[in-house]
Amino acid sequence: MTELELKYGCNPNQKPAAIYMEGGRELPLEVLNGKPGYINFMDALNSWQLVKALKKATGLPAAASFKHVSPAGAALGLPLTDVEKHIYFVDDPEPSPIACAYIRARGADRLCSYGDWAALSDVCDASTARYLALEVSDGVIAPGYTDEALAILKTKRKGGYNVVKIDPDYEPDPIERRNIYGITFQQGYNAFDINEGLLENIVTENRELPQAAKHDLLLSLITLKYTQSNSVCYVKDGMTIGVGAGQQSRIHCTRLAGNKADNWWLRQHPKTLGLQFVDGIRRPDRDNAIDVYLSDEWEDVLADGVWQTTFKTRPEPLTPAEKKEWIAKLSGVSVGSDAFFPFGDNVERARKSGCQYIAQPGGSIRDDNVIATCNKYGIVMAFTGMRLFHH
User: Fold this and answer.
1) Cis status of the peptide bond prior to 16, with omega within 30 of 0
2) In the chain, which ranges are E strands?
3) Which residues does the annotation mark as catalytic?
4) Which end of the chain is more exposed for a tag (fewer CB within 10 A), N or C?
């Protein structure tokens, strides 16, 4: 197929809409089910690049959960712990590696992943399809699907779930173009290879960078390469736990991503794990209830009795002191930034969410202040020398 007509563009009034290859070439993808839209394909193609790069950099299966052309989460296919199975609502005793990758990517920020687009570096198997079938999701892109997986996915959304197969060997042209306000922009395709060599320029007194932290920093940088800028990404144990995207101020990116990381960690607090939900509650309603339980709105919910529609028993609140004490236990977090940290305040905020490793381009006139702040807390920081803006 050389051209695929779409229902409309970003909004219903933006017609006509289509995707096609210049010169009448064949599209490197095939729609196996559903009718993906304009934004669906933007999510699909950006998320595919992310997981393909992650697989290349680490050798591990990778997955991403995308919303509005930025990742809500991305992860490697590492085994799930019992706690992770609990907080991600996983019943399968042994999910496949690619299923684990998506479960962890979706679990990074379940609220933002609502209605996501999924991307898989490997062939989608039945284990992954069964999990996708349970979630509110718009579609999935992968290099292939087993017959059983495709049959499962075709039953989702009354048969309208979007399933896209992409040629894993496809490489884009070295020059890319886009139109804005009738004016054509042209630039070289961002084929910059993110690998462990970027992490060799360690500028802090602490130079100990374990292999697991290297993988986490690569995950953060590759995620940032496909995140709307400005952006900062927190990673732990092979999965993003906080992505701050599209902020005009870098400290706001750092705070946003850090707050998401804190929320991810608070979901593992014993009180949160012990929440008892009413029978038959929908997964999105459960996610929303947990988010409210961890927020400042919880006291209002207790006061008006709304909790009774969600929980079997009246949950005991998490006090501000308990939250602070629990967040202080978070450690081993890696943080990447798509451009330099201009001030040490970014390091100060990242440290509060367990940051021990940082990768950023460097090049600020205040690099010495940022380095000194890292040294103050024993944080390892590498200067990559490469900016990763994405718009």
Assistant:
1) yes
2) 3-6, 17-20, 29-33, 62-67, 70-76, 116-120, 137-142, 162-166, 175-180, 183-188, 231-236, 239-245, 333-337, 355-360, 380-383
3) 67-68, 230, 391
4) C
Structure tokens at 150: 């495709």
Question: Distances from the Cα of 340 to the Cαs of 206, 234, 236, 241, 385, in angstroms?
Answer: 19, 15, 21, 21, 9
| Topology (CATH) of 189-266+327-383 | Cytidine Deaminase; domain 2 (3.40.140)
136 CB contacts (<8 Å, ≥6 apart)?
114, 115, 283, 284
pLDDT average per 10 residues of sequence, the chain (391 residues): 91 95 92 97 97 96 96 96 94 94 96 96 97 96 98 96 97 94 94 95 97 97 96 98 96 97 97 94 92 88 78 91 97 97 96 98 95 98 96 92
Domain residue ranges of the chain, discontinuous segments joined by +: 3-166, 189-266+327-383, 270-317
- HSE toward the beta carbon, residue 54, CA cutoff 13 A: 37
Does the domain formed by 3-166 have CATH 3.20.20.60?
no
